[in-house]
Structure formats: C-alpha cells, structure tokens
C-alpha cells in the first residue's frame, strides 16, 4: 500500500452523539459524520420517532429533535443495531421513561447491559425486560436524581448511557471506574457544548451536574481511531508506506507503539501520521487488548491479520470480549497457522497464504479479511460485506486509492443477515 488515506469521523462516537441530540431542546448540526450504514440506521430510527433528520452534505447531518413525540423505540430497525441502547439513556433524560427494543443475538460472546441498567436504577428509574426483547425504564416521578455510581466493569456503553441520562437529572452524578475512550470525551464535549456540565471525561471519574435546558450547536465528531488503525495494519502487512490523514495521533498511541515494536517506522504530525514498513524485516510481537488507553479490542482482528505475515510466534490476548475470534477460522481457510486457547490466539506467522472464499463474520473481522487478502497473490472473495459497510466509509475506494486491487461485487443473500453493532 502506498499513498494517502483520509480518515472519516468515528463510528462509535457518531452512534452515541446522534441519539444524544434527543436530549437537546433545539436543532443541531453534526459535522464529520461517517457515511456508513450504522449512521443511516440510527438516523432513520430518530426520524421514525418524529425528529427531522437530513443530510446537509456528505459528512454533515441536521437534526431537529423538537418534534420527537414518543419515548418508545420498539421497531425492527432498533433491534438491528447494538448501539440502539443509547436511546435508553437519551429518552430517559428527555422524558423520564423509555421503551427500547434490544438486539437479539450477539457475535462475540455475552454482551450484557447490566451496568447500564444499574446506572439507570441508581438515577431513580425502574427497569424491566419485557418479552425478553424490550427494555423498559420508567422514573415514576418523571425526574431523575443525581447519584454516585461505581461501574463493576469498565464499559464504554454504560459510561456513555449514564452520561446521557444524568445530563438532565437533578443534582450531581458521579461515575467511578468510567471508561476513558476518545469517544467518551467526544460525547462529553458535545453535551457540554450544548450547555451540559460534565467534568472528568477521559479519566476514570466523571462528574455530571444535570441542567434543565440544552441549546442547539454545530459540532464536529472526532476522527475514527479504529478506521485509522485498520489502514495502519494494512500498510504494515503489505510492507508499504502510507500517510493517514485527518486523525489525532494521540488516540493511536497504543497501535503506533506496537507497530514500532515490530520495526515499523511511524512519524507523527499534528493531524496525520506516516506508517513506513518498507525498510527492515518486521518482528513478531504480542498484544493484549484493554480498555483505553490500552490496545483497542476493535483493532485486534486486523492486527492479528498483520501478525500472520511476520515469521515467529505472536500471541494475541483478547481481554475485553469473551469470544472475538470467530474470524480465526476464516484466516485458517487462507492457510494461516493460528490456534485459539480461551482468550489467547497463538499465531505462527510467516506461512504461505492462499486465496480462499471467506466471510466477514462481523465488522472488524471483515476488516481483518481485507488486511489478510492484501497479503495474498490471488483473488480473495469476502462475503457478508454488509458488516464492513456498517463501520467503514468508502472502504473499496479508500483501499483502491492506496494501491489495492479491490472491488465490490453483490451476491444474492448478502443483505439477509442480521446486522449487529
Ligand atoms: N459489560 C458488562 N456489562 C455491561 C456492559 C459491558 O459486563 O453492562 C462487559 C462486556 O461484556 C465486555 C466489556 O464489559 O466484556 C466491555 O464492554 P463495553 O460496554 O465497553 O462495550 P460496548 O459499549 O457494548 C463498545 C463498542 C464496541 C467495542 C467496545 C469496547 C459501540 C457501539 N461499540 O461496545 O465496538 O468493542 O465498546 O471498546 O461503541 C466495534 O466497533 O467493532 C465494536 C464492537
């Protein structure tokens, strides 16, 4: 891979910030929105609820939430998307009650939301699971009250959902053991720009003083750390040299550090970085995924695909999700030598790979298939690409621009699979 790639806005910030507009008492404009199917889905969900949502241009959305006339989000679209759980916090904050459909399955182990519900209960709502598929949260007095919440596990979703509900609660909420991902800071910055009072986002203690009114703003979403990390892995895996533009180098430190350990040269600029893997042979390395600022689980499959290209034994330790190795059997189809033992994947890198039909078993798994396919002299067919399109804007065009021979072909049945965030 050689050339330059421009990174889009962060998916995991966008899927929280768009529902956060529900809390606002005036219209908002959100810039640097990634053009991905998850954003289309959450936008359509807001429209179904009565919001006026329209694209101003390729990367900006106008959202007027003032006509939202329901606190009920039980539709087929809602159940297709994992991040629909942010509707719970946003609707609770706006109306004091919420009824939201939850996604049925999960694709990398158990994905509980007990910490979200614990937070809502602490704020004064009663929560219950209805028919095994709908979460109902009701605050009888209609007013949530600030409180002290200690999260038992570091959860991105629970941290953001509690921030949403607490933004309009009466008094101060303190979240201890909060997640620190860049998108948590982005959501706090967005809420604060509307007049919320949130301090400490990016540390493990977040303090939220509820306010009565949130005014409209124009806000720009941070760059996507994981999209950037994916292109960095692809450049290293093909021993290429690319410049990754429109990023925040600090958000990529854990990925850059591992690439440097392998012998890749990383040069940081203000809003870009250069990944140069052309010089020395790369060295094997181990990674262990951790909440931010640790190595991100969402870049684990792509990094594993890179490690296949390096002779020697590399060990991946997935420490966030119970089962995020479904992609391994697809890489094995391509000739990879990888064995999974519980949370560990042991990669014997450097063995010759061959083209094979493979499947994107989820979003990042699909990205890993691309990183693997780029290493193979032959044509790899990746199916279920709708998963990739959930989170990567113009993935084909962007890879083509840095030298990949990649094109999109449609097969009947591609869209029949359930989409899960
Ligand atoms: N957990 C609980 N209880 C909860 C919530 C989480 O036990 O109430 C556990 C989970 O089972 C998991 C760990 O805590 O083992 C972390 O889960 P977290 O809540 O942080 O994950 P999430 O908010 O559901 C977001 C991203 C994921 C990303 C994780 C971790 C969105 C929409 N999703 O999920 O992104 O893997 O944080 O960083 O923001 C992706 O983009 O490919 C993706 C899956």
**Biggest β-sheet description:** 4 strands, mixed
β-strand amount: 15-25%
Quaternary organisation of the protein chains: single chain
Under CATH at level 1, the class of the largest domain stands as: Alpha Beta
In angstroms, what separates the terminal alpha carbons? Answer: 28 Å
What would you say this structure looks like, in words?
The protein has helices at residues 11-20, 37-48, 76-79, 86-95, 114-122, 156-166, 182-193, 225-237, 253-262, 300-307, 326-333, 363-373, 386-391, 395-401, and strands spanning 2-6, 28-31, 52-57, 60-64, 72-73, 97-101, 126-130, 134-138, 148-150, 172-176, 197-199, 205-209, 218-220, 241-245, 265-268, 272-276, 287-288, 312-317, 337-341, 344-349, 357-359, 381-383. It has 421 residues and is an alpha/beta fold. It has 2 domains: 2-209, UDP-n-acetylglucosamine1-carboxyvinyl-transferase, Chain (Alpha-beta prism); 225-420, UDP-n-acetylglucosamine1-carboxyvinyl-transferase, Chain (Alpha-beta prism), CATH 3.65.10. The protein is elongated, with a radius of gyration of 21 Å. Residues 412-421 have low confidence and may be disordered. The structure holds uridine-diphosphate-2(N-acetylglucosaminyl) butyric acid (EPU). Uridine-diphosphate-2(N-acetylglucosaminyl) butyric acid binds next to helix 1, helix 5, helix 6 and helix 12.
